[in-house]
Amino acid sequence: MILVRLLTRTWKTLSDPPPVPLPGPRALPSYARMGRYIAGGATLDRRVELLVRQLAAELSGCRWCIEHGLHQWRQAFLPVAELGALRRYAASPLFSTRERAALAFTEAVSRYTDRAGGIPDAVLAELRGYFSEQEVAALTLAVAGEHFFNPATGALGADARLAIPGEPGVRRAAGSAMRNLW
Predict the structure, then answer these.
(1) 175 in a domain, yes or no?
(2) Is this model's pTM higher than 0.70 or not?
(3) With contact defined as beta carbons under 8 Å apart, do 111 and 55 qualify?
(4) Residue 29 lies inside a defined structural domain of this protein
(5) Looking at the chain, which terminus has fewer C-beta neighbours within 10 angstroms, N or C?
């Protein structure tokens, strides 16, 4: 009987994988710090950075990221009406040629997996006409960061959608303690 118990315990130990420890309370602050990191110390024009992040958030479909970008846009005292034209940036007179180059790059990076051959050379050439290599790296990090946050935020439950009472078909992002980290 003792041998059977020993064999059963040994088999159970070998067949069950060890439990994976959860990241704990340090995961969210690290996640927020990563969002604040800027490539190589390059600083972007605040308006360009916000435009790029907002378009990347909209293209990724992250409701929390879109709401957070709108909040940052308001904090910077920029006209909110311009965000409505963001998806039509190429034809909109609200954006400068420099901003259009950054937004075209954002769209190219966001749709990178949809295209064979990567980012079009014309988009990169136009972007490099307005931005230094450090700024291109910072733009790339901003776009990639927004696309990283989409599945991560959803997995943490911060991107859950709630119906707004009295407004059929209208949804918005649910609140989250994660918002306080920004």
Answers:
(1) yes
(2) no
(3) no
(4) no
(5) N
Cα 28 to Cα 43: distance, rounded to the nearest angstrom: 24
What is the per-residue pLDDT for 21?
61
Residue 143 located in a structural domain: yes
Residue 18 included in any domain: no
Tally DSSP H helices, then E strands, for the chain: 7, 2
pLDDT at 49: 92
Which helix (DSSP H) or strand (DSSP E) does residue 130 occupy? helix 121-130
Overall domain count for the chain: 1
Amino acid at 20: V
SS3 state at 9: helix
Angle at 20 between CA 33 and CA 60, to 5 degrees: 45
What CA–CA distances, in Å, run from 122 to 59, 118, 126, 129, 181? 21, 12, 6, 11, 38
CATH of the domain at 166: 1.20.1290.10
Q: pLDDT of 106-163, one tens digit each?
A: 999 988 877 777 888 999 999 999 999 889 988 988 888 787 766 666 666 655 444 3
Q: Residue 167: which domain range?
A: 44-181
Q: CA-to-CA distance for 169 and 155, rounded, in angstroms?
A: 24
Compute the C-alpha angle 12/17/23, nearest 5°. 140
Kindly report the length of the chain.
182
Q: Look up residue 35 and give its two tokens.
A: 């969002």
